[in-house]
Design brief:
single chain; about 220 residues
Length: about 220
């Protein structure tokens, strides 16, 4: 459920982008746009606007339920408001296309910095309560997240600006919007599953010790 809540703005961006023509034809939204504007630009502006609103709802809803803010939500809201706002004002989708890359690279820097600042890395702070690992393994785990975030940022740039350049602008934007939801999310799932297999051997090695302690 939390995953769906975290993806709430992204899902609405995806849906509203692909349903933009219906919104233009059947709601007052269509009156806000010049008929001469390219369909891809109209769809991007509509989707970006809805995603910004969804991000505010996401942050507000989390605060109402928990009486606190989640840093990831706040940072994502800031990014989409700034980059999305520039996209809307200047009519250039490139700014909103940079958002996943900036977000992933900031995460990469945060995980890397935690390797040298404080007693525990970010991965150990998040997972240390559920599993015990040797310090070298925590380091490898943390660095693997750094590499993953860097790679995700590069992958987003490639799909947004370099993939299938021979195609028309609308098709290329469609590809990026699909990748933004399914591609990046799929990459994350694969990485997490691979990480689970990597950690399984340490959990199995610990089971005999836990069983012996319980028997005593």
């Amino acid at each position: 459920m939390k995953l769906l809540y975290d993806l709430f703005p992204i899902i609405l961006f995806f849906v509203s982008y692909h349903q933009a023509d219906k919104l233009v034809d059947n709601t007052p939204v269509g009156q806000l746009f010049d008929p001469a504007q390219p369909d891809v630009l109209v769809a991007t502006i509509i989707a970006t606007s809805i995603a910004i609103i969804a991000s505010f709802i996401q942050v507000g809803g989390f605060w109402l339920k928990h009486r606190r803010f989640e840093k990831m939500h706040i940072f994502s809201l800031t990014l989409i408001t700034v980059l999305g706002g520039i996209t809307i004002v200047f009519g250039d989708p490139a700014f909103i296309q940079w958002k996943p890359t900036v977000l992933n690279w900031v995460f990469a820097m945060a995980f890397l910095a935690s390797q040298f600042i404080g007693k525990k890395s970010l991965v150990q702070r998040m997972m240390g309560g559920q599993i015990e690992l040797p310090d070298p393994v925590w380091i490898k785990l943390n660095i693997s997240w750094v590499i993953f975030f860097l790679f995700s940022g590069v992958a987003n740039l490639y799909v947004a600006f370099y993939y299938a350049l021979e195609l028309d602008e609308k098709t290329r934007m469609d590809n990026w919007v699909n990748f933004k939801l399914f591609g990046l999310m799929g990459m994350t799932f694969v990485f997490v599953i691979a990480q689970g297999f990597y950690l399984a051997k340490y959990m199995q090695d610990k089971q005999p010790e836990d069983k012996q302690i319980s028997e005593e």
